[in-house]
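User: Reviewer 2 asked us to show a designed sequence for the structure in our supplementary figure. I'm pasting the structure tokens here. Could you produce the per-position amino acids so we can include them in the response letter?
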């Protein structure tokens, strides 16, 4: 393995195989794949983003990385793939960073198709939730802790890079623009750029529909495993039982749906958190013709003295006033905003486009799972692909997987545990037989940065340990140099063969996969 500075040479894949370049953008995803083509290398870019602040921990920048992409591809990407609309997957895609780069096709998940009725319904629901969350965040601004927690998730949905987060005013501007019009979010602008630059059009990918050809590389076949078109699966976010790698885990629940309806209802009608026919607006409750006196006597109104005597702890012969302020929930329900923010973030992750690249019919497989969560994973095995007179199953593809892009920075909810015999797709399905001896994983995580985010556990130790064991140490991580010596349990000869296929640079890792 050699360590070199980035140079202008084109990225050249091995004959019949592929080269995977894992860019070290920070805590985020950016992969450049090179395949042998009919007239030269065929390049596929999968995502390009990072969490603001994380590149500083490893001394890289999006500008340097996109300059490297331009050099490595000769300025032309044959297929640009965006797996899902999250900041750490798209915020490196700007006019400035992508100047001088042309794109053949852009591939997006079916959820981005404006002509798909299911996608449109999901988009409307999500935009309503986002507007409600933005309104709630505005009203909780004085609570710095809660507002800060919400901002971490809002940033993922809205986008923006290091320059936007240089001061509070920049982020406030992003929030204001998104609240005015969700289409103005930085994430959507990045998606728009790749749509508009696609010389040969945009392809909206649906799972299990067809075995796709990679333009210019006839020996490579592409299988779309997710996201599912089953809305229940898209809402199925967290592993259960033995699907989970046990460790510290936060669960997202359906409470987000309740909150979204509540906050949007309040903004529209002044009535939280129930439908209007079941509630009286707080602002006019005390004056209501039928119930005003009851509210005044038993709940009071803001600023109203309740007659409570702190010296005796009593009001007359009662221990607490009938109209004590604590009897009113007022805006306490807004505090579920953090739960909604987490729920929305998980929903976006679960709608990830998941692709498997096959190197020749029946050959090795490269699996890019983006940030897919439980419902997406479970759906992979729901159907098979027609392949001439036969079929191909997800179990077969995962068994032939030699490279796994680990889901969501190694988070607890984005890689399912299991054994080869498990009914659900899992790590246990991957890399069997001769493919197991080559199985390698890539984790896009900067641990030191993650620990500044209320201790985000990326990567979860239990998952990384399982990957290290399964891959005999062949695990890349954004912030970690490839070890010079073989880990315990790996032979020196095997490690030498692995290192011969690795090139390490300040901006990326290159990994060659033979055909």
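Assistant: Here is a per-position design you can include in the supplement:
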């Amino acid at each position: 393995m050699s360590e070199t500075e980035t140079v202008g040479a084109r990225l050249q894949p091995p004959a019949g195989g592929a080269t995977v370049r894992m860019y070290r953008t920070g805590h985020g995803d950016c992969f450049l794949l090179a395949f042998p083509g009919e007239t030269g290398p065929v390049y596929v870019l999968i995502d390009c983003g990072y969490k603001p602040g994380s590149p500083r921990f490893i001394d890289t920048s999006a500008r340097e990385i996109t300059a490297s992409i331009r050099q490595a591809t000769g300025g032309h990407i044959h297929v640009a793939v965006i797996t899902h609309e999250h900041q750490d997957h798209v915020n490196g895609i700007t006019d400035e960073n992508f100047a001088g780069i042309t794109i053949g096709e852009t591939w997006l998940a079916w959820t981005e198709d404006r002509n798909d009725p299911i996608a449109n319904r999901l988009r409307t629901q999500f935009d309503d939730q986002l507007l409600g969350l933005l309104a709630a965040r505005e009203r909780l601004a004085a609570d710095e802790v809660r507002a800060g927690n919400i901002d971490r998730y809002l940033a993922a949905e809205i986008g923006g890079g290091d320059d936007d987060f240089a001061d509070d005013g920049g982020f406030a501007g992003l929030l204001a623009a998104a609240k005015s019009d969700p289409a103005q979010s930085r994430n959507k602008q990045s998606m728009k750029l790749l749509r508009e630059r696609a010389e040969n059009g945009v392809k909206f990918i649906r799972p299990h529909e067809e075995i796709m050809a990679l333009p210019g590389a006839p020996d490579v076949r592409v299988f779309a495993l997710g996201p599912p078109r089953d809305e229940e699966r898209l809402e199925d976010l967290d592993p259960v039982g033995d699907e989970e790698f046990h460790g510290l885990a936060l669960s997202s629940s359906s409470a987000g749906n309740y909150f979204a309806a509540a906050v949007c209802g309040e903004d529209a009608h002044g009535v939280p958190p129930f439908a209007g026919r079941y509630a009286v607006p707080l602002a006019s409750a005390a004056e209501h013709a039928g119930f005003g006196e009851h509210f005044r006597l038993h709940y009071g109104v803001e600023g109203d003295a309740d007659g409570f005597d702190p010296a005796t702890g009593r009001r007359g012969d009662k221990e607490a006033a009938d109209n004590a302020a604590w009897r009113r929930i007022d805006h306490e329900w807004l505090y579920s905003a953090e739960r909604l923010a987490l729920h929305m973030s998980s929903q976006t992750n679960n709608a990830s486009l998941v692709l498997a690249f096959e190197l020749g019919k029946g050959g090795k497989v490269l699996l890019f799972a983006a940030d897919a969560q439980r419902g997406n994973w479970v759906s992979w095995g729901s159907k098979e692909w027609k392949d001439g007179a036969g079929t191909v199953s997800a179990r077969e593809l995962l068994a032939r997987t030699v490279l796994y892009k680990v889901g969501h920075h190694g988070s607890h909810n984005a890689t399912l545990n299991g054994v080869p015999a498990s009914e659900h797709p899992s790590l246990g399905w991957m890399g069997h037989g001769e493919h197991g001896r080559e199985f390698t994983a890539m984790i896009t995580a900067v641990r030191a940065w993650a620990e500044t985010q209320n201790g985000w556990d990326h990567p979860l130790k239990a998952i990384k340990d399982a990957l290290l064991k399964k891959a005999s140490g062949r695990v890349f991580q954004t912030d970690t140099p490839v070890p010079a010596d073989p880990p315990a349990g790996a032979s020196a000869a095997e490690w030498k063969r692995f290192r011969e296929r690795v090139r390490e640079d300040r901006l990326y890792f290159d990994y060659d996969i033979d055909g």
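For the response letter, you might also mention the following. The chain is about 30% helix and 15% strand. The two ends are 20 Å apart (CA to CA).
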